[in-house]
User: Fold this.
Amino acid sequence: MRKIMGFAVFLLTCSLLGAAEKAPLKVFVSVDMEGIWGVVHSEQTSSESRDYSYARKWMAEDVNAVVEGLLEAGATEVVVNDSHGSMRNILPQDFHPRASLISGSPKPLSMMQGIDGSFAACVFVGYHARAGTTASILDHTISGASIRAIRINGLELPELGINGAIAGYFKVPVIMLSGDVETCRQAKAILGSELTAVEVKEGIGRLAAKLLPAEEARRRLKEGAKEALLKRDKVAPFKLGPPLNFELEFQTSAQAEMPALLPQVKRSGPRSVAFTANDYLEGFRLMRAIIALAAAS
Ligand SMILES: [Zn+2]
Assistant:
């Protein structure tokens, strides 16, 4: 009997210790491709092109280094959303065995699919600067062929801001971003100076960059993720509105014609349309539908 009691106390202690260790700490990661180490050209990021098979491996290596750092800092669950093009870039066999991968598209929240209020932090890996940035690899905003600028409440935002506001909607701070020097600068300016920015390359032009040595890039990604998660309380969630005024400026006047037919959308200029929303996710969804309509023109 005493032995059994002793064993029961042992089990209880173990489970209490286990519970103390395993308070959930969930991290959401959105991974794009243009800001991945090694990438300098669309012939690497487009699934039809020659060097794509290499770039998708670099993408997995960058994100795996980040996952490793997050786990070392105590993350109990890491969910990674593949966020570029077809969103089927990372091959499951190349992916970190202790993280979950969201693969494929379309997805209602696109690059932010999977996030909700249960996450403690959000990380952007391989992100790029907004359309119209000097010396930054493959600068664009959502769709290079259709979009010249996206302004929300008058603020011209790159994808890191548009997506950062989705994290903010769920009260989740964006604690870290990786990409080129210019993208890191935009991240700090928009999402806050306490964000950990990891520069894996320095843009020389839109299609040329000086890369960090590979080992050093992956070391900085891992250490950056670890540090960022440990000091996550220093970063405030990025919130916009309400009310929210969305303005989309297209590349051509033709692209504004079909979106302007929607009842809640008005033509705000020869190449632009605008609408207002009270809920950020509602506005985000309408914005995506408008971009799809513009692309079809
Ligand atoms: Zn992309």
About this structure: The domain at 23-148+157-234 is CATH 3.40.50.10780 (Rossmann fold). The radius of gyration is 21 Å. The pocket of zinc ion is lined by residues 32-34, 84 (CB under 6 Å).
